Amino acid sequence: MHDLSISELAAGLRAKHFSSRELTEHFIQRLERLDPALNSCITMNQDAALVVADAADRQLAAGGGGPLTGIPILHKDIFLTKGLRTSCGSRMLDNFVPPFDATVVERLAAAGTVMLGKANMDEFAMGSSNETSYYGPVHNPWDVARVPGGSSGGSAAAVAARLCTAATGTDTGGSIRQPAALCGITGIKPTYGRCSRYGMIAFASSLDQAGVLARSAADAAVVLQAMAGFDPRDSTSAEVPVADYAETLTDGIQGLRIGLPKEYFDAGLDAGVEASVRAALAALEQQGATLVDISLPNAPLSVPVYYVVAPAECSSNLARFDGVRYGHRCEAPVDLQDLYERSRAEGFGAEVKRRIMIGTYALSAGYYDAYYLKAQQLRQLIAADFRNAFQDVDVIMGPTTPTTAFALGTKTDDPVAMYLNDIYTIATNLAGLPGLSVPVAPVDGLPAGLQMIGDYFAEGRLLNIAHQLQQATDWHLAPPPDFG
Amino acid sequence: MTLDSTDVAKIAHLARLKVADADLDAYARELSKILHLVEQMDAVDTSGVTPMAHPLHMTQRLRPDAVTETDQREAFQAAAPATEDGLYLVPRVID
Fold this sequence. Notes:
The structure holds two protein chains of two kinds. By secondary structure, chain A is an alpha/beta fold.
């Protein structure tokens, strides 16, 4: 059952080949048996999941339900789940049981999905390897000595290992696309504002966006369809109608113009990854697409710009964790200052503290113009590069990451080396554009990803192109050898 | 910009983070390294460029000034470390 697509599972449920309870029990058993090697899940939700599965079975028996009714998924532990601990990968929220659901969680529950549990992640989504989690690193199912990528590392590892059908994720600088690439699955980060941020613990509010990690573009389309849309409870939610992704999924791609930015095929790109990416591009060319060389001249500055904008916003957002209203509180504080300083020092890990301090510094008196204002100006130039490019091409493509998954522990002592993993993904967030990663041919047995960047609200087009690629190739079908 | 341990102590205080004296130098090295990365921004002249605060060009939506939320104080305070009579408890602020 765990190898079937979401539409095959939905058909199986309707044909009574299996029930949602059986399907849910199957995934719970896989999680119990296989996840100790991966650590992809922080909190399980077995009992409540079976109650929801039974309700889905009743709905299906009565002839009701939709394409996701009874389908088991995982939620990244950044999304608030009413009554179920939501840690955000941090000691700070180790004891936090939310009093309400995130909009994304609410919508996917309304669509009939069964929540199996909460996926591991880098602490407060700050990391590219899932090694900053308070709950320990996640292991890559293709090689458990390697990282799964991050910050949605638990979501990616669990989907790749067939421990759930699909999972939610969030992407601030590459946190859906990078782990999707390193774990050999499909991940989509929609346009900024496409999915509600309500109840999604904030890291960098002008960049954060929810999305999906799934085994194929078709599966991702079904899940995103249920998540996306305007939400009055999120002040930056886009009041733009959601397209019907299924309707355009099977469109042909003849005449598609694909821009290849020379900055994404630079000296830092691993030769094996480049060869696999070019093979995928050739497959699209065979279907009638045209490859066009383009330039995004300011894209190489996206990492420096990001490491001002994201820490600045994080230092402000994480000021709410004060040991007073919820979250970790230190023992026996002597005064209010001590309560704040020790609760935060004990509750946050090293990477979160580094980013809070960088952000605090960049926003402090006398430095604002040199750092934050400068970064916002460059952000304008980076976004303008994309606008110019989309005058001539329909979609931009390149590698998702410069290399395949690296070994656990190799970059934890060097924050800057870790940050450079996201060199090809960050510009998309700065511009607010949608991005998608699909698996290409493995490199020495490890997955790699092709990144597709679309114009604003072109999620349907990206899913369509990815689906067409997956109709013509089988790179997305192979499971990790030990998790088939 | 290279930070020293005095700078880090000041930043940590602004950020309300307790940093042990023994850790100040290590943070100074790491934060300086990140700032060196960030200073690559100086390579581009941005004079006259309008800062981009937000990816979508939209105006702030406002809602009518009407009560829409019900009182959930008990549910919200259930997650608090210490409360009494509906109030959050902190160490004494005024003697």
